[in-house]
Design a protein that fits this description.
The protein is an alpha+beta fold. Helix content is 37%, strand content 28%. It folds into two domains: 1-152, GAF domain (Beta-Lactamase), CATH 3.30.450.40; 177-402, Phosphatase 2c, domain 1, CATH 3.60.40. The chain is built from eight helices and 18 strands. One of its GO terms (molecular function) is phosphatase activity.
Length: 403
């Protein structure tokens, strides 16, 4: 009769334990509360005196509960250190000598399919009483699955937040680009922009300051993603503020470098090309700050040249070590092609880069084309070359034709 009463009492305690933890899960209690309820249940309602619970986390097992253990046990066990011999039913931990689990008499692994999600080590209070391992394992399984679901939900929420942030950053980046490019008799412009991801690191701009003056630029920020978009947004704001003033190209570039270095402590940099053309004097001035040299093509000579003059990348030094302002005079009927390294670094299936030589040959062959036709032909060319190999970086090509 006493044995029957004991069994009845044990079943009643197990049912109470099960109700407590499932109620907490249904109420969406925090991970800490769920762990405390499980720990309390094991120590009060079950015949358990000491326990350690390890839960799987990114290639390791993390110590989530440790109670009644005097010895030194690790807070983290690498998954490679846990060997579960299913054939013999033994668990082997390949740990350093300083760690020991000898005072804990048994262990219970928790699996989902073939993946071990947790390990519960324990010791009984009363050695004369049996421990219902099946129920303890089932209870542990309920807890671990709840923790796994919480982790998954948290990751899903974090991903949703990240997706929203990326979408916002992408919208911000799109706002940086000119809404329209000129297509009048004096100046025709066309851009091809192929971002590697939703948020890229390329930037181009064209600012008509007056009837006689136009500024144009292209830039590539180190890094990608939201931080790159925000950095480029600040860069554009600084650039446009400087261009509205009477600052010359030298002052503009020096101030941009100073602002960038101050904001990033030299940890981020931007390659940048800034050009200025005066329709009245027919003079082009420019600064190339470590960027791919644009191609200047003159119809009268039928030749193209690279525009190298300038300085080093912006943001690497608190003061630019050198600075040269490039100048070309008496320009008539000419074109400029500005691009980022995503173009020349586009790969084909043989892992060959498109390269500057192919680009220069293409430009030489098609320098007389209208910008729209030039870009249509270029897109066909780059697709034929890459044969659907994904871009490794953002690709931007900005073409300007001056009459």
């Amino acid at each position: 009769m006493t044995t029957e009463i004991h069994k009845y009492q044990r079943k009643e305690l197990q049912l109470k334990s099960l109700l407590e933890i499932t109620q907490a899960i249904n109420e969406n209690q925090s991970e800490a509360i769920l762990l405390n309820i499980f720990k309390f249940t094991c120590l009060v309602h079950l015949n358990i005196k000491a326990l350690i619970l390890y839960v799987a986390k990114e290639g390791a097992f993390e110590n989530k509960i440790s109670h009644g253990v005097k010895g030194n046990v690790p807070m983290l066990i690498a998954a490679s250190q846990v060997v579960d011999e299913k054939s013999t039913g033994e668990l082997r931990l390949e740990l350093e000598e300083e760690y020991s689990f000898e005072e804990l008499e048994t262990y219970l692994p928790v699996y989902h399919k073939d993946k071990m999600l947790a390990i519960l080590f324990l010791r009984r209070k009363d050695q004369s009483l049996e421990l219902d391992l099946n129920f303890t394992q089932a209870l542990t399984n309920i807890l671990v699955v709840a923790l796994e679901n919480k982790r998954f939900a948290r990751k899903q929420l974090e991903q949703e937040i990240l997706n929203r942030e990326v979408a916002i950053a992408s919208q911000v980046q799109q706002m940086l680009f000119p809404a329209e490019l000129p297509t009048d008799k004096e100046l025709k412009a066309k851009v091809t922009y192929l971002p590697h991801s939703m948020v890229g690191g390329d930037y181009y701009d064209l600012i008509r300051k007056s009837k006689d003056e136009v500024y144009f630029c292209i830039a590539d920020v180190s890094g990608k993603g939201i931080s790159a978009a925000l950095l480029m947004s600040n860069f554009q704001a600084a650039l446009r503020t400087l261009l509205r003033s009477d600052a010359n190209l030298e002052m503009v570039v020096k101030q941009l470098n100073y602002t960038l270095f101050e904001n990033t402590n030299g940890e981020r940099f931007i390659t940048f090309f800034l050009g200025h053309f005066n329709f009245k004097t027919r003079e082009l001035t420019y600064v190339n700050a470590g960027h791919n040299p644009p191609l200047l093509c003159r119809e009268e000579t039928g030749k193209c040249e690279n525009l190298h003059a300038g300085t080093t990348i912006l943001g690497a030094f608190d003061e630019l070590p050198f600075l040269e302002i490039g100048k070309r005079e008496h320009l008539k009927d000419f074109a400029l092609h500005l691009y980022t390294d995503g173009l020349t670094e586009a790969m084909n299936p043989a892992e060959e880069e498109f390269g500057e030589e192919r680009l220069e040959k293409f430009v030489d062959k098609n320098m007389d084309l209208d910008p729209d036709d030039f870009h249509r032909k270029f897109l066909k060319k780059i697709k034929q070359f890459s044969k659907d190999v994904p871009l490794r970086d953002d690709l931007t090509l900005l073409s300007l034709r001056f009459q």
